[in-house]
Amino acid sequence: MGVKAICDLLDESSELICFFDDKGEITFMNRVVYSELDFDKMNFNIRDILPNLFTDKVDIVSYVKENVSEDIRSDIYRKNHTCFPVNVHFYYNDEKPCDDDLKMAVFITDLREVDSLSKRLSSNEENMKDVLRSKDEFTANLTHELRTPVNGIRGHIRNLYEKEEDISNKRTMKIVLDCCDNMEKIIDNLLDYAKLENGKMVIESNPFSIRELINSSVSTLESVANEKGIELRCNISENIPDIVYGDEFHLSQVINNLLNNAIKFTSSGYVSLDVYKTKHKKKDIELTFFVTDTGIGMSVEDMDKIFSSFSQADGSITRKYGGTGLGLYVCKQIVELMGGHIEVDSEKGKGSTFTFNINMKCDEKSNDKEADVDIFELKKMLDVGRKEQSELKFDFTNPTNLKKISDMIEKCKLCIELDNWDKAEGFSSGIKSLSENAPKEVSSIAFRLVMNVRKEKKDKCRDYLDELDNIITSTIKAGEKNG
Question: Taking Cα atoms as reference points, which of 21, 22, 88, 17 lies closest to residue 53?
């Protein structure tokens, strides 16, 4: 059989097949490679599509020889740097004479469908072991989370009887509502977890406006971000079709959960949601979402476990910010049921970027002239912006910035009067963060304020807030006079 006949035969295979030389240059690829990886010419290297196996330090020929006949699980990368899981099998022909262009080959099997079926059909034994190991910690966290809103309801309902002024009643009712909201979030996450564990979570496919969904989520959380003095940004790529087919409710749940988390762990700077179309073939569309924040960030060790059930970065995070550790686990499961993948890039003290993609349908057919979106470049751009923001010093002399601190002081005072120490700590931490570049007396007072809020010392907190208020007011007046 001639070379051309062999190539024609390989073109009919459902596997991705490539031949390459000792430098890794692709000398042949079948039709599946063209369609799946979006490479239109053979001007790329084996390292481009299998970078996890062929790192810069790996000798290509040696690696292939050592792994001939082995089945290796890895990720294969498209031209635009998105990827999907595959099984890799190498072939090496050491017979003489042999055409160097046909000496080495790789046979690649797409595992996306296999992984999806496996996830639904097999019980997650490892996850069950993790659940059992986490039982004690989960019970403690859950008890704490349930006790807090219940105590809030009890304490403030008592205040309703003790106080008769309308303003006090309204404030107390607001606290009751906050407690109910907290309880509802916990219960929702627990219900979703139960559905996922029992295989009862159903992903639907109905038409909806993707822009309306995203704008609604951002609008809902804008006031929460403004309360903390942080900016909530949103950018939706213009080439995304307005109407898509998918599960509107569960996508909204993932977006809201990630934005809520980002806002919760950010005391200054911004939280942004960026959405891009990263793949479009016929009526199949892939959307990629980036949720970026300039918050507390996390270490590499923490990133490894945040998507596990009942897990957060560490115990202190749970105590300070609350949560059962179910939110990100639920997000991960929903995204994977939608045929996507979620991951996080983060740096301690410089914020985080959560990235997830989902597969949907749309009525608009793909445009062949449309340029691919390079996910790697997008990530790099967002990460650079996040790190630059985290390194910016707050200009204490700027009237707008002073007004931000002043607003936080008033809100912190109100929370302390109502014994809402969780929110008071959030506002006091925001004041401290925004005062880092202020005169030493201000940053010192802000630091002592945070310490006393954590100890729930009401009188001390009032004194520090009044002192800060006087300094800020004087600074603003002095600025107006000089201006």
Answer: 88
